[in-house]
Amino acid sequence: MTGIVVSGHGNFASGILSSLELIAGKQKNVIGVDFTIKDNIESLQNKLENAAKELSSCEGILFLTDIAGGSPFRICALLCQELKNSRVVAGTNVGMILEISLSREGISIEELKNMALQSGINAVKAFETREKKQVNNNGI
């Protein structure tokens, strides 16, 4: 099974994992790492390295972050260069983590990464109202 590390600014990780647990229950080998105001780059890196060590018995690690280019993303990308069988995906949403956390048994890290990307896209929806029919001059 692939392990999952979620990280982001503020309490992004703990918040999204709280939603996941409410919807699907506690998930095995899923760790959240928040990057709070009390942290700096070094403390975030230490927390992410510790999370990766906790998941060292997993077949691989998929890092999920909030935004591409942010500190959590950059540190996870650096860790992926050191860790074999790991990937990073930014733009994490609840739909994405829900689908991949429940579907990660028996699939490769590359397939899981691709699933995360597609799930994230599919989870974004807009509510559309029906426009009222235009009334002509005869009131019809």
TrEMBL record:
PROSITE patterns: PTS_EIIA_TYPE_4. GO terms for molecular function: kinase activity. Residues 1-124 form the PTS EIIA type-4 domain. Transmembrane segments: none annotated. One of its GO terms (cellular component) is cytoplasm. Its main location: cytoplasm. Keywords: Cytoplasm, Kinase, Phosphotransferase system, Sugar transport, Transferase, Transport. It holds the Pfam family EIIA-man. GO terms for biological process: phosphoenolpyruvate-dependent sugar phosphotransferase system. It is found in: Cytoplasm. NCBIfam families: AgaF. This is PTS sugar transporter subunit IIA.
